[in-house]
Every structure is written in structure tokens, then in C-alpha cells.
Amino acid sequence: MRVGIVACDILKHEIEALTAGDEDIVHREYLEFALHVYPEEMREKVMEAVNRLEGKVDAVLIGYATCQSLGSLDKMVRVPSVMLEGDDCISVLMGPRPYAEAKAECTGTWFSSPGWAQQGMDAVIKELHLDSMVEEGYSPEFFLGIIFDAYKRCLFIDTGVGDKDELVRMSLDFAQQLKLPHTCTVGTLDNIGAALLRVKHLAREAAAGGHQNG
Fold first, then answer.
1. Cα 68–71–72 angle (5° rounding)?
2. 62 has pLDDT over 80
3. How far is 124 from 66, CA to CA, in rounded Å?
4. What structural domains does the chain harbor?
């Protein structure tokens, strides 16, 4: 059984923690997190990365949620695949209900997962399409001040991976740059773990089918 992983770099810590030492994983590829800023380009690049694994793996874990443009992507690639359940990476790491509750509690929440905390301000500049302003010589601080005026807090999501103290420090530093209160909550790896179980089941079936056909 051969399983490949094509995932967003923002979820690398969590996926690596769950798959460390797993001999069934024969390919790992993490794509630049900011691809979702350009949905159609992201869709094309994820599909290309998965399709390149045709004949090399039995199934692929697509480490992405729906993320604006990836709905039903697992049905459109040429390799049996499983996607993560959720609207975005935060939904994956918190679970749909806690995510909805956190947004209801404070609509102006910036969610800071370990991956987002590590990327810091660079991630925000790309997320909000401010990189072109920076390239033209404009300071992003002015635009960030306007955009984040509606935000009320930065919420760090502890998924139990990595150096928690260091990740919290980076998340707190980000919040302080934007003058936002900083709080923490506990995330989950259950959604990624469930997807890994599904993709292994799919790979097992595909491998068995290949042996029978051979």
C-alpha cells in the first residue's frame, strides 16, 4: 500500500506529527500556503500535483479543505483521493462546531493556527493581497490598520504539535503588532486523523484491485 500526501504548507506540522514513521506514506509534498489567495490557480496546482502521482501511489491524501475552489476536487483527479472535511484549515483544526461558536462569540476574530503563527505578518500581507502594494513601495501598515480595525481579537489554536511556548510567542507578537487582544483555545487532530484512515482504506482497496487485475 502506497499513500501520497499533497497538502497545504499551513498544515504541515499537524500532518507530519500524525504520519511520523508511517511506512505507508511514500510521498509528501507541501504546497505554498498562499495559493488560496488565487483560488483557480490553487485548484490547478493541487490537481497537477496529485495527477503527477498517478501510477506511483495507490491513493492520495489531499491536505486541503474546500478552501473556496476545491469542492469535489477528489472526484476530478486521476488518483483515488481523500480531502479534509471543512470549509477551510481552521475548520479542520478546530472542528466545525467550535469554529462556528468562536466566530459567534467574537465575529472579529483572527484565527492563528500553528502554521499561521509561524508565517506571521508575511501571511497576512499575502492573504489580504497587500504584497503588490509592498512591491510598489507602499508600507502595508497603513492598509493593515484599516483592514484590522474591524477585528477584535487574535485566537491561537493549540493543536498539540510543535513548541507551544514558541508558537504562542509568535502568535502574541503578531497580535501586538496589530494591537489586538490575544487568547488561546485547544484544537484537534481528529479531522486529519480520520482523513488518513479513509485514504489508507482507499489505498488498500486500490492496491488489492491492482493485484487482482495483474
1. 165
2. yes
3. 20
4. 3-89+189-213 (3.40.50), 96-186 (no CATH)
